Amino acid sequence: MCTPSTDFGATAPSSGLGNVVPLPVTATLGTGAFKLASTAGIYVEPGTPEMLALGQYFADKLEPATGYALPVAATTGAPCAGNIYLTTANADATLGAEGYTLSVDPRLLSVTAPQPAGVFRGLQTVRQLLPASIESASAQSGPWVIAAGTIRDLPRFSWRGMMLDVSRHFFGVSDVEKLIDLASYYKINTFHLHLSDDQGFRIVINSWPNLTTVGGSTAVGGGAGGFYTQADYSAIVAYAKARYVTIVPEIDVPGHTNAALASYAELNCNGQAPALRTDTAVGYSSLCVSADRSYQFVSDVTRELAAITPGSYLHLGGDEAKATSVDDFKAFFTRAAPAVQTAGKSLIGWDALGQLDSLPANAVVQFWTSADNARGAIAHGGKVLMSPANKAYMDMKYDMQSPFGQTWAGYISEQTGYEWDPATLVDGITESDLVGLEAPLWTELLSTLDNLEYMAFPRLIGYAEIGWSKANGRTWDEYKSRVATHGPRLAAWNVNYYKSDAIPWQ
Ligand code: TNX
Q1: Residues near 420 by Cβ (< 8 Å), separated by ≥ 6?
Q2: What integer pLDDT is reported at residue 25 of this predicted model?
Q3: Residues 162/316/223/410 CA torsion (nearest 10 deg)
């Protein structure tokens, strides 16, 4: 049973189906408009807990601004006129794991996808087609009208990520969740947590408790640091999962390990724990490659992390191991990498892993600086995740005026961050070698959520579009006026985004 709504004569907004970021694959404008009425319901098919949860997620997003408590119910077949229909029934299988079709008719709004993840992605499109005031935390006047038409949409790359360094400065669960929620609005599907480095070890490992009680007690600049309990981490994983975002945890080895070395003397070749470090130097620390305990450490950490990580990848870092010889680096990963397989996961590491003589099945290397190493990884059957430092490092300053951030990889304006193609940037790395792209946010120089938001927005929105939308036809001039319409939405969420003149912000 459903209550039909009868206002089918609403006028379509002049923006039509425009202003969606990432740009959908195809959008065809129809006649008229769908008007969301207070009497509408959200009907899901099939009535599984997952689909009902998606319906409730959407109802919860609409309630503050509309004041409507839209009921969510299971249905078989399309509901009656005036309602919203979310379904995986009779979907076009070629839309894949995350694609969807959005059909907006004056009498029905429906999102159809082969998988619930596609329904979630489609709901982000629906939110973007509603007036920006839909994102307000308090009741607004509406009307809540969407232009009639059809969108058929699916991603270019399967891995569209953001990375946050919680080691140099620690960020609590609610900060991380806010970033995940924002990223998911732009259809990002992977959130990589850089959980350990020289300055802090940030996740409780029950079999090695000092890693956090000692190694988690500091941060860059000497602050108090902090760490996630495994329950905290699981809360982040669940929050991300509800947004169809996969958490990829990173424990960086064998370098970038001073916090672990300071926590356990036995991980050091000289048997002595160094002091905790709060400076930003790199390349001085290494697990003891000849010590069996180092591999016990890796296997215990990967086993405990794997048990609370539903995603299929564990990141073992491997970058800037300058205190480890190349032979030792190879010897280290030959013994350490199988722990990831044993834990039932696949290995991802930074591009230095391309120096190894072989890679395990399904290995991914994350390109940030060395094209040679990335090509080496491809030659050994690995796939590449693109995070070029001079295009995708969100800790780089936008320009000379930026109040904080790094410059070693250059300035990265919003335009520079947007105008590149992962499949043509590096000689010898082509589309079929890639799993996708990821934008890292390192935090040596960033210590507050406000800082993070300023560096990530709006650049992250551009990376989301590079990962999702077709390369063909993407232009900065068109994009900048489309992303400009998202200013009021970012403002509604209290995001401290960078408002430069490069984008004609509304
Ligand atoms: C290089 S990228 C690093 C990080 C720093 C970053 C700062 C990478 C794998 N290593 O340790 O935080 O530069 O931009």
Answers
A1: 388, 391, 466
A2: 98
A3: -50
Contact between 156 and 471 (Cβ < 8 Å): yes
Whether the CB of 282 sits within 6 Å of ligand 1:
yes
Could you identify the atom of ligand 1 that is nearest to the CA of residue 317? Answer: 9
- Is this prediction's pTM over 0.85? yes
Letter for the amino acid at 397? Answer: K
Residue with tokens 């640091």: 225
pLDDT in tens, 340-349: 999 999 999 9
**Ligand 1 centroid – CA 366 distance (Å):** 12
| 145 has a pLDDT exceeding 60 | yes
Angle at which helices 459-468 and 173-185 pack, to 10 degrees?
50
CB-ligand 1 contact for 320 (6 Å cutoff)? yes
Q: Are 12 and 104 in contact (CB under 8 A)?
A: no
**Each residue's pLDDT tens digit, 37-78:** 999 999 999 999 999 999 999 999 999 999 999 999 999 999
Q: What is the pLDDT of residues 398-414, one digit of tens each?
A: 999 999 999 999 999 99
Closest CA to 197 of 255, 127, 144: 255
Evaluated on CA atoms 439, 445, 449, 455, the torsion sign reads negative
Q: Which of 320, 419, 453, 465 is catalytic?
A: 320
Residues contacting residue 272 through CB under 8 Å, at least 6 positions apart: 265
In this predicted structure, what is the pLDDT of residue 251? 98
Sign of torsion, CA 498 502 503 506?
A: positive
Active-site annotation holds for 320: yes
Residues 6+ apart with CB under 8 A from 84: 36, 40, 41, 42, 43, 58, 70, 108, 109, 110
